[in-house]
Write a structure and sequence with these properties.
Largest sheet: 11 strands, mixed
Mean pLDDT: 89
Order of helices and strands: HEEEEEEEEEHEHEEEHEH
Shape: globular
Structural class: alpha/beta
Strand content: 25-35%
Radius of gyration: 17 Å
Number of strands: 14
């Protein structure tokens, strides 16, 4: 997902890579073959109790010569108000369970690249590409718009390009001081910008432990700060969100780590 300012380069090269990846989507590829995340060495994992649960547990792992190793303690997160649904990421389409659609208040399930980090400050402690947000940047959540599922600057693309979008990135300036996007990162859901398939999916700060999201994954500032400092672009980090029963079904084929039998974070 090209969650960068519209004027930045690399968009063409990434589009070509995504086109090549789309050709693999016809069958359920196992991670033991040449899966798109086979070379990833950092994993942010969120598991939830079932498809309709609005909260879960976040864990982090690093992968070395002997497989995945836990990289931190479990932490609580909130997800979409209605729960989760299969999104469009790196894994092949799956059967069973709801499917993510625009505006359905479900967080996308599957395997996704972690994209740019972002925030209100001029800089943060992270090695990942960082976008210092300004008042004219929006994520376009209007399906069918030219920049659907992209973060763009209205000063660059024009005010008409962001007309109707409900996602100003500087929520503090547009929405009464809202701090939820003060720190976050992009979850690369629907990178092809398929109409109505869901847009503007982030990991960001939560409003409270009991406030779910419109489809993102939310957490405390301390957890987010530790993630941003830990992530490394050279390790090709991925984000995985799955209900526990789906995680156990797919874990071996997708070469994901074993986790404890409970979803209760400390």
């Amino acid at each position: 997902m090209v969650f960068r300012r519209y004027s930045r380069s690399r968009a063409v090269g990434l589009a070509l890579a995504l086109a090549a990846l789309a050709g693999c989507a016809g069958r359920d590829l196992k991670a033991s073959e040449t899966s798109p995340w086979q070379s990833s060495r950092q994993l942010v994992l969120v598991t939830v109790a079932d498809w309709n649960t609005d909260h879960g547990v976040l864990r982090t792992f690093t992968r070395g010569a002997h497989g995945w190793v836990a990289a931190g303690v479990a932490a609580p997160v909130t997800i979409g108000k209605i729960g989760a649904g299969w999104g469009l990421g790196l894994n092949a389409p799956q059967r069973g369970g709801p499917v993510k659609h625009e505006g359905d208040n479900r967080s996308p399930a599957g395997v996704f690249r972690i994209g740019d980090t972002f925030g209100y400050a001029a800089s943060v402690d992270t090695a990942m590409p960082y976008l210092a947000l300004n008042a004219t940047e929006y994520c376009v959540d209007v399906s069918g718009a030219a920049h659907y599922n992209r973060i763009v600057d209205a000063n660059v693309v024009g005010a008409d390009a962001v007309k109707g979008s409900t996602e100003p990135m500087r929520r503090d300036l547009h929405l009464d001081g809202d701090q939820r996007y003060r720190m976050g990162f992009v979850i690369e859901q629907n990178p092809q910008a398929k109409p109505q398939a869901g847009s503007c999916i982030f990991a960001h700060l939560w409003k409270s432990p009991t406030d779910s999201t419109a489809g993102c994954t939310a957490m405390t500032p301390s957890v987010m700060q530790s993630l941003l400092a830990w992530l490394r672009p050279e390790d090709e980090p991925i984000f995985v969100l799955l209900p526990r029963h789906e995680y156990e079904r797919l874990r071996t084929d997708w070469q994901l780590p074993a986790i404890a039998a409970t979803d209760t974070a400390p």
